[in-house]
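Interim report to the steering committee. The following record documents the input for Amidase (488 residues).
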Amino acid sequence: MSTMYNGPWLQTERSSSTLPGEIWRWEAVDIAAQVRARSVSCVEVLKAFHERIDSINPRLNAIVHEDRERAIKTANRADALLRSAPHQAGILHGVPLTVKLNVDVAGEATTNGNPAYAERVAPEDSSVVANLRSAGANIIGRSNVPPFSFRWFTENPLYGRTLNPWRADITSGGSSGGAAVSVATGMCALAHGTDIAGSIRYPAYVNGVVGLRTTPGRVPAYHPTVSQRFFGLQSMSAQGPIARSAADALLGLRAMIAADTRDATWVDARLEHPDDLSAVKVALIDEVPGTTVSPEIKTALWEAANALAAAGYIIERAHPPEIEQCVDVWQSIVMTEVRLGMISAADSMEDPDIKRSVHNMADCAPIVDLGGYARAIARRDDLRRKWNELLGRYPIVLLPISCRLPQPWGADLGTIEEMRALIAAQSPLIATAALGLPGIGVPMGLSGGLPVGVQLVADSFRELRLLTAASVIERHKGGMSALDYRAG
């Protein structure tokens, strides 16, 4: 693993006198620092988060499985290690986090929101979970997802609906909805998420937190309960941290990226580059073909652009290369793979919403044969080349996360025309995932009581460039938090 990155925006040693009173309000970097300094014990940290979960999770339903006995044992072992061999403490030592229900945690069911998988117990940890444990993290719960982690709305027949802390009638996002809510409200300091069409960035957006989609291959993705991963998952799906700050996201990223030879797609790419802190040219995209960008999101984009410009970044308006074609390629590849099994699995569930959502997605996608599938893969290469040219001129692209404000529940359950319009509104998420690019969602405050955010995209394996720019925007904006949420 790379050495600790010490950019000027990364605060790792904040004084305990400046921290909020309740431990669960502390950021992950502060928890890790205070634990290392022995100012607070891992057991004390865990107790504070358990109390917060008990206070609000019965209402929000973000964390749907806990093994508290295991978490307490982990905290006790972590404290013992600090007494006997403090030099062995990892970068997340004692930091409480949640893991999404679609990856394997040894001894727990990887249900992925499907009752048919309720007994699918993982024999060992997935790659990312093993890495988080090695870094000293304490896994305190599993975060809720939609069935198959395949909606922008988190609810399922096993565990029910996860509520958005800002407004209960608005989606909590998906598929990492439980993860984003648990972070936003202080039920954990960090959360693990996955993203094949916005499943990290969209929940981060609608809950007002930071969500980092890494480059596919950056975080090892082996899961013992998964027998095969189609091309779409290998090339487009990515894992990453959901956090309340860019510094916390970096800390989580560092823990996640350690090598695991069980994953054939992991890439031993360097994390740090000499120009990670450089102010570079930024392509501002505030018009998206095929849809309308809401005025509130345009305002947020220009506010983010102004913050970057004040820090020395050069902002120029630009157009996204063939974004509709990128979405078409995503649909031609991923939805063809979905037709190989997910649709029939959804049809077998007693959940009309997942059936309707998956069928709506499928009905909006072209039906292709083997040749069409192969041509879509080839066309993806052409489109990525065009985006490479854009990223060669503009190392960062600033664009919407979604072109709409956070959506009400069931926005994917209407007519096919409504679903097509929703997909077009989500095209900045889908297109960048289709091309395997990293992206980060950055909160930009509230508009009419709803969170608003922007997305930054960079070239492959340039996550630190994204985190640096996100921290610039974060310092400018600030002041938005769901930590004051109270149930009832």
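Residues 132 and 255 are 6 Å apart (CA to CA). The committee is asked to note this result when reviewing the revised timeline.
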